[in-house]
Amino acid sequence: MEVRLIAYTPQPELTIAAAARLSTTNSKATELLDRMTPERANALIDRLLTSGHLSPFEHASFTFGIDGISRATSHQLVRHRLASYTQQSQRYVSVKQLSYVTPRSIEERPELLDRYRQAMAANHGLYREMLQAGIPAEDARYLLPNAVETRLVMTMNARELMHAASVRLCLRAQWEIVHLFEQIKIEVDKVAPRIGAELKPKCFMQGYCDEAETCGLLPTLN
Amino acid sequence: MEVRLIAYTPQPELTIAAAARLSTTNSKATELLDRMTPERANALIDRLLTSGHLSPFEHASFTFGIDGISRATSHQLVRHRLASYTQQSQRYVSVKQLSYVTPRSIEERPELLDRYRQAMAANHGLYREMLQAGIPAEDARYLLPNAVETRLVMTMNARELMHAASVRLCLRAQWEIVHLFEQIKIEVDKVAPRIGAELKPKCFMQGYCDEAETCGLLPTLN
Amino acid sequence: MEVRLIAYTPQPELTIAAAARLSTTNSKATELLDRMTPERANALIDRLLTSGHLSPFEHASFTFGIDGISRATSHQLVRHRLASYTQQSQRYVSVKQLSYVTPRSIEERPELLDRYRQAMAANHGLYREMLQAGIPAEDARYLLPNAVETRLVMTMNARELMHAASVRLCLRAQWEIVHLFEQIKIEVDKVAPRIGAELKPKCFMQGYCDEAETCGLLPTLN
Amino acid sequence: MEVRLIAYTPQPELTIAAAARLSTTNSKATELLDRMTPERANALIDRLLTSGHLSPFEHASFTFGIDGISRATSHQLVRHRLASYTQQSQRYVSVKQLSYVTPRSIEERPELLDRYRQAMAANHGLYREMLQAGIPAEDARYLLPNAVETRLVMTMNARELMHAASVRLCLRAQWEIVHLFEQIKIEVDKVAPRIGAELKPKCFMQGYCDEAETCGLLPTLN
Fold first, then answer.
1. Interface test with A, best of C210, C213, C215, C221 (most A CBs within 10 A)
2. What pLDDT is recorded for position C222?
3. What are the chain B neighbours of C30 within 8 Å (beta carbons)?
4. How far apart are CA D79 and CA C75, in angstroms?
5. How far apart are the two ends of chain D, measured CA to CA in Å?
6. Are residues B99 and B200 in the same domain?
7. CA distance linking residue B132 with residue A212, whole number of Å
8. Alpha helices per DSSP H over chain B
9. Same structural domain, B114 and B164
10. Which domain holds residue B118?
11. Residues in D touching B51 (Cβ below 8 Å)
């Protein structure tokens, strides 16, 4: 898996803070942005988070190139609807070199791992034969397993990133999507550390765990 | 594939028409709805469509039970973001009986069909073995092919249904999702024929085809 | 102000519960809905709320006729973006009879109330003269105060209703929109009491107040 | 009215084009972006527009500071739901200096203009008195007319900008919001001329007018 921030709103934290200031002052956005300092932005962002006033975080967007996640995970990812996705098509792009994801639970069991790999190779072999026999790629791909890698471009604003991370960094989430959001957090940390710091599991925000089966990191409510 | 309308806004067309009337009259919504007749609703709906004034169509929602589509198709379906989905989880529900979709292009080729079926059975066999060997369902499913069937509940309002159908009933769309929207149209036709009549490919709305590779049904622009 | 539920998804709570069941069982939505009882639906809804699994609540929609709120309040209301609105137009519908909202703080001060009423009448008088002098309604309305009443049709699903109520039933919210959501809650209570019970201020959900200036009903975090 | 682009996705057109390429090739987003040239981006954008494949345009966002539009216009603007807004609050910011918008139809009639100005001053005078008499700003503002100026920060992606402009640059739209989108177009033209060129009334896209009362610029369908 490789996650790269390919574009983002410049000065994301200053932009968020300037927008937030606008609602309670009598100044123009351009002036507020010119006068905003990183220190004041951080203080304002703290206050927005404490009071649950999250809409100004929508003014900063982040665009990621995401390569090498499984279709199992991309199917979950695109369920976040307040975001934009452009995904590599299995209808138009035929899978020449097979790349696939292997869960660690299988990787640790040599006898299962061997059979997993053989199954992947066999499936891909038949897929390739189907293509050669004239079956369209959009039909032959019905053979391809969930493990097969895909790539996509995803744009999310900071508010939705915080929400998605709160759900997907939970240790009860599926391990591959946890890993994806860890990579996303690393990328955001580089350019917007104050926002990056808010990419964390929901239990850290709530102070307790609300999962039916807890991982035990934080206490449940009863 | 089985598609059933399991719930919808009662009197969807009257509700849409009453809402539309409200914007240009000085009457209460309840009165407008009481006085609305199917004939006047149809006339109003015609006018809304002609002038591209589509927001009143959002007041009528349709909830479908969708069974037996492939994961290939569900992955496309959930890309329509102005809708609500609840999907059967491959993390929590293990696949005991294998049900899968077979593309017609493969079905028509006996020698390929045999091998397709064998590949499905082999994959499912290994999946079952993995479960018995203690691999969690959420990891074993990496083996499952795109063809495996899923089910979901989907709620879409009439405006988004018209949009999604315009894109997905295009003969250039993927055949399984075309079939899905044909079934959706059949269900809507039963309870809201005026809306059902608007579930049609985009070329019927535009009067021309804008696809890079046309199916030839309607002329392209040049 | 008059708020009337004019349409809604029939059996909203059973529909939500059946959809939620689908994600973790191997049954069709139609069967799950047929077998669902109010008791089991309530138990399931409890579990969804405890674990913050809110997406199934999107499958039930509620459509309200809202009459006699001020334009000050409608401007706030339409900021909830996950909903559908059709509003009476001040461009196309000229205001013949003046109806306007009076804040209680002004109503309780007879000397101010008199002048408030006179100002409303004077503004409306000039507005009417402008219309007669040939000024288009869409321009004459620049004179009309925030207090002038409007009406609209609003459709929201149960998930967004719970969110909007959590913010708008807070006693720190603007009094007229608090009143609006109290009326909405009364309407929902009649047909979906389990959902109606969840229309409550955010502090009741969180167990604490996160407002900068608390009303004192529940303790703040520090 | 003053509209300023205060932040935007850098290289918006290259980003859109690289994302679009990803769906039909087998390369990483970072590589596609590195290799993209303005010429190839323009050619790709042409093709996306011709085929109605608009989702890649969502990867570029634009954030505007908007000052001095009337509350009449801001109420219309925020109806575009696929965007983010932070608006100056009339609840928390009291209106000390009265700034208001005057429609040209009134400006051209000296006798009406005088009375318009007097009405604005009288309203604002009473508003100020109310504040001094202890009425909260959130209640006193019920007196303030639609004409009173507001300011906001708005973020919209390129896809929604094209849609909103298609509706709001129509000469049948309300003149102040037409003017707002003309300013928005001027700002976008400076940094993303290819996208700016697509900010145009819907009739230019469709080739005909679908308004009930046409302005006559382009022919209607019958």
1. C210
2. 64
3. 4, 6, 65
4. 9
5. 38
6. no
7. 24
8. 12-22, 29-35, 38-50, 71-77, 104-107, 110-132, 137-140, 158-168, 175-191, 193-196, 202-206
9. no
10. 91-143
11. 210-212
Answer yes or no: do B50 and B158 share one domain: yes
Average pLDDT over residues C62-90: 96
- B123 contacts in A (CB within 8 Å)? 119, 123, 145
Of A109, A112, A143, the CB nearest to B145: A143
Query: Is the domain of A64 the same as that of A101?
Result: no
Q: What pLDDT sits at residue B88?
A: 93
* Assigned domain for A29 exists: yes
pLDDT in tens, B2-57: 999 999 999 999 999 999 999 989 899 999 999 999 999 999 999 999 989 999 99
Any alpha helices (H) in A133-206, and if so which ranges? 137-140, 158-168, 175-191, 193-196, 202-206
Token pair listed for C203: 């502090």
Residue type, C12: P
Cβ separation of C50 and A210 shorter than 8 Å? yes
pLDDT digits (tens, 9 = 90+) for A40-55: 999 999 999 998 999 9
| pLDDT at residue D222, as a whole number | 64
HEC string of chain D equals CEEEEEEECCCHHHHHHHHHHHCCCCCCHHHHHHHCCHHHHHHHHHHHHHCCCCHHHHHCEEEEEEEEEEHHHHHHHCCCCCCEEEECCCCCCCCCCCCECCCHHHHCCHHHHHHHHHHHHHHHHHHHHHHHCCCCHHHHHHHCECCEEEEEEEEEEHHHHHHHHHHHCCCCCCHHHHHHHHHHHHHHHHHCHHHHCCCCCHHHHHCCECCCCCCCCCCECC
- Per the listing, tokens 């009903």 go with C217
For residues A10 and A14, give the distance between their C-alpha atoms in angstroms, rounded to a whole number.
9
In this prediction, does ipTM exceed 0.90? yes
Return the active site residues of D.
168
Quote the number of domains for chain D.
2
